[in-house]
Design a protein that fits this description.
By secondary structure, this protein is mainly alpha-helical. Helices cover 68% and strands 4% of the residues. It has helices at residues 3-35, 40-60, 65-69, 71-83, 110-127, 132-148, 152-168, 173-193, 195-205, 216-228, 253-283, 291-315, 333-350; strands spanning 91-94, 97-103, 106-108.
Length: 358
């Protein structure tokens, strides 16, 4: 591997083990309350981390031509998987959302698997001259499924990634602007038609809502951020993790991090994420990628960037809460497997100079 590849790999490991440490910090209270010992959630996440490392090691050596050749088949198989949580008796419903399935007592979100195969398919589709109707057609089906679950945050990530790839594919700027405007309008309509999403948006816009009801989650997150001040309360000294901040070890983990290590420490974490994108770009600086590889690479980066921004934006209250996990940090095996898999795909692309499939 090149120097940039090694640097990227080391950074991914640093992010993942830092995430595991802070997950332990954020989850101990809930772990004791539910399982009577503090190590349950961190032990589960450590197992997923080990599996993620194994998956990434295998993925690095895969021939990406397989994904390109089978892009359409893999898209439809992943689409079926995405729909499974909607099947009564198979899907799990938590907090009014049917986004999970359980296999062998392990719960995972099919959307985390679908994201890659969606981006892979669009990279393959846009690498060839394709009609606009095809671009829209293959967006409709996952869009409908995610609205039914409902999982509006994941839908926005898919839409954002597809739009970035569509723009990078060399489409006419007028066509792109029209598609972008139409997407924004449809997103706003969807928000207004979905009750829970409409309520979240209204609680975000109306700052005078009851902080003990509609805005409880965001209010507690902001309290954690404020309590951290410049240098934090100190490792292990978070008060908000004591059942005050909802989803303290998953969606809201950055609030606990900020409370313990403050603004300065949180800035270091954010700079580590910035380095992730910088080193990814550095890896392909001198590479002669074909169009499929190019679109797949930046489609993945768009996905990670969107998920990161949605999570951090919700934590600092500049975006509505969306339930997006923080990559490498939030509790959840499927999300961790997914981000390791696509990080390995980025490494794979950077070492490959294969010609465009005919």
């Amino acid at each position: 591997m090149s120097k940039a590849n090694w640097q990227f790999t080391i950074l991914v490991l640093i992010l993942s083990f830092t995430g595991l440490f802070f997950l332990f910090e954020a989850s101990t209270v809930q772990s004791v309350r539910l399982f009577n010992h503090p190590y349950h959630f961190v032990t589960q996440q450590a197992k997923w981390l080990a599996l993620s490392l194994l998956l990434a090691s295998v993925t690095y050596f895969l021939n990406l031509r397989i994904f390109q050749r089978l892009a359409l088949v893999l898209y439809f198989l992943a689409l079926v998987l995405l729909a499974l949580p909607l099947i009564p008796g198979l899907g799990l419903t938590l907090n009014g959302a049917s986004r999970w399935i359980s296999i062998f007592n392990y719960t995972f979100q099919p959307v985390e698997i679908f994201k890659f195969f969606f981006i892979n398919f669009y990279a393959s589709l846009l690498a060839k001259k394709t009609k606009f109707i095809s671009f829209i057609f293959f967006l409709i089906w996952p869009g409908l499924i995610l609205l039914l679950q409902p999982d509006f945050g994941s839908l926005l990530i898919l839409l954002f990634s597809a739009m970035i790839m569509y723009f990078l594919s060399g489409v006419d700027i007028k066509v792109f602007s029209t598609v972008l405007l139409g997407s924004v309008i449809l997103a706003l309509i969807a928000i207004l038609l979905i009750p829970y999403r409409r309520e979240r948006l209204l609680s975000f816009v109306k700052r005078d809502v009851d902080v003990q009801v509609e805005a409880y989650h965001s209010h507690q997150v902001l309290l954690a951020l404020g309590a951290g001040s410049h240098f934090g309360r100190g490792i292990g000294n978070s008060q908000q993790k004591y059942a005050y901040v909802p989803e303290a070890s998953s969606d809201s983990i950055f609030a606990i991090i900020a409370e313990e290590i403050g603004f300065v420490g949180s800035t270091v974490i954010i700079l580590m994420f910035a380095a992730y994108f910088f080193l990814a770009e550095k890896m392909i600086k001198d590479q002669n990628l074909n169009k499929y590889q190019f679109l797949l690479f930046y489609g993945i980066l768009a996905w990670i960037a969107a998920q990161l921004l949605f999570n951090l934006g919700a934590v600092v209250a500049i975006l509505p809460l969306s339930g997006m996990p923080l990559p490498f940090f939030s509790q959840g095996g499927s999300a961790l497997l997914s981000v390791f898999f696509v990080s390995a795909i980025l490494l794979n692309i950077s070492k490959s100079n294969s010609k465009m499939l005919r």
